[in-house]
Amino acid sequence: MMEEKSKVHTETGNNAFTVVRAGTFFGSKILYILLITLHVVWFGVGVAKLVIGPMYINDCDLEKMIPIWVIVDAFTPILLVVGFIPFYKDSNSDAMKKFGAACLVIGTIFSIGWTICGAVVIYPNWNDGGDCDTRVATFAFASMCINWSIIGMWSQLVGRLLFYTFSRSGRKTSDESQR
Predict the structure, then answer these.
(1) Around 88, how many Cα atoms within 13 Å sit in the side-chain half-sphere?
(2) In the prediction, which pLDDT does 89 show?
(3) Average pLDDT of the residues in 112-136
(4) What tens digit of pLDDT does each residue of 79-122 get?
């Protein structure tokens, strides 16, 4: 069971209180649970990519890069999950949150770039009737479709986290300079 601890701070000037509880993500338990679930599922897909890619690395004569794309694409969730870890706890320092934000930006850029590379390799060869094992070709195609779906969601969330992180650090700096 998650331990409920409150952290209350007062914003200068308007006496507003912000209550953040442990076991939440920006104060929302639902968002926290959805994010953890997404990380577990996406991590599982990454493990599947690490298993399927090497198993069929020599079974795709049509396009040798398809199994390699699957293997390299397995590391995208690692960057993104590592980037979110500092945001799970409210007690982490701003430096850790900025490191997490940097991992999220790098992970998002890598994910977009690698997915575009995969689209160039996988989509033209889909159902081409070549000598590529259907399991790895179908898995790569499905992974590509999943990646495009997730890129939109990740980009939205990363943008919001960056705004939240840097707007809070700017507010602290201006509050400190007023004292």
Answers:
(1) 12
(2) 66
(3) 83
(4) 877 787 776 665 567 888 888 888 888 888 888 899 999 999 88
* Angle formed at CA 58 by CA 53 and CA 59, multiple of 5 degrees: 85
Q: Tokens for 123?
A: 């989509």
Tokens coding 6: 């409150």
> What number of CA atoms fall less than 13 Å from residue 55's CA on the CB side?
12
> 70: buried, middle or exposed (CB in 10 Å: 19+, 13-18, 0-12)?
buried
At residue 71, the pLDDT reads 92
Are the C-beta atoms of residues 104 and 166 closer than 8 Å to each other?
Answer: no
Among 31, 29, 23, smallest CA distance to 2 is for: 23
pTM: 0.65
DSSP state of 23: T
Q: Give the chain's radius of gyration (CA, Å).
A: 21
What is the C-alpha to C-alpha distance for residues 143 and 129, in angstroms, rounded to an integer?
Answer: 20
